[in-house]
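Thread: Newbie trying to understand structure tokens

Hi all, I'm a second-year student working on a class project, and my supervisor (Dr. K.) asked me to get a predicted structure for one chain before our next meeting. I've only ever worked with sequences, so writing a 3D structure as a token string is new to me. If someone could post the tokens and maybe explain what I'm looking at, I'd be very grateful. Here's the chain:
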Amino acid sequence: MDDGRPAGGTRHAGWLFVAAGLIGLANDLPGTIGAGSALAVVLDLANVAIGVGALLAPWGRWPLRAALVLPLLAFANLSVNIVNGLLPVSTLGVWLVLVFVWIGQWQPPAMSLAMGPVAALACVVPFAFGVPLTKSSLGSIAIAVPVAVLVGVTIARREVAIRTAQDGQREALAILAAANLTDDLTGLGNRRRGNLLLDSLREGDAVAILDLDHFKRVNDSYGHQGGDVVLQELGGYLREAVRGADGVARFGGEEFLVVLRTATASGAPTIRRLLAGWRATVPVTTLSAGLAIHRTGRSPGDTFAAADRSLYEAKQSGRDRLVVEGAPLAVDPRIQR
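---
Reply by user tm_fold:
Sure, no problem. This is what the structure looks like when written as tokens:
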């Protein structure tokens, strides 16, 4: 009954009650089994009312097992109809199967077994109120109840198998989708993920491009495997440093994209902390960054290009620094040009 099933199940039950009530009212017409019985009309109208109530009730606010009141009402309705001679005992099997089909579809298999004794009690209670007890009626009950329970259990097990298969399929699709958006080396988002981040830009978001300084020297000095280690270390660092609604992706080579949602104070303090945090790890090479703010009337591509130009200025002015689009270029005395 998880994953939104209670609401769907109660709606289904509600329509069944409405349908049963309307069928009963049709049988209350002259010449039918219930003709001339005011009680039959009342009971059928009660079914319609229960159905409408089930359709309108706020089931999401109540415990999941609250929906079990509906089959209990159905059993009670059967008993009252039989006691008052409005429903032949011979038709019990049809109604019991209908109720257990619902139980099997919307409840776990054990619930059909648990409801078996309740259904049997509902069938035998009328005999305590004077309904004639015959071998035929007992035979009908002895067959109808076990068959209905078996139907409920069978359907419930099938529903469990279907939901398990669907859950497995959703999990597989989620893994596949994640793999399609993940960079194998760093574990960050890949370029496809980066493009999605850019496409989702809103006014006030900050776009930063980070680039490892002198990365060619790293590869020349430590080999490409050594360069991969540096990229992996930076990926791990950025995964921990960039969280929440913000996003990060390896955009290509040694270049990384960071999107800061609704950046405060242009996002520059956050990017400076990123650069300082990476510097504190005593890496073999530092980071440079360019930053731009996405504004109304500007395309994501234009904002990315502005951040890229700022990154170029950061590289040209000495590296290991951040340049913000439109901001005066700060000189860092630590940097040897």
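A couple of things are worth pointing out once you decode it. The beta strands are 206-212, 247-252, 255-260, 287-293, 322-324. Residues 191-324 form a domain with the Alpha-Beta Plaits fold (CATH 3.30.70.270). Feel free to ask follow-ups in this thread.
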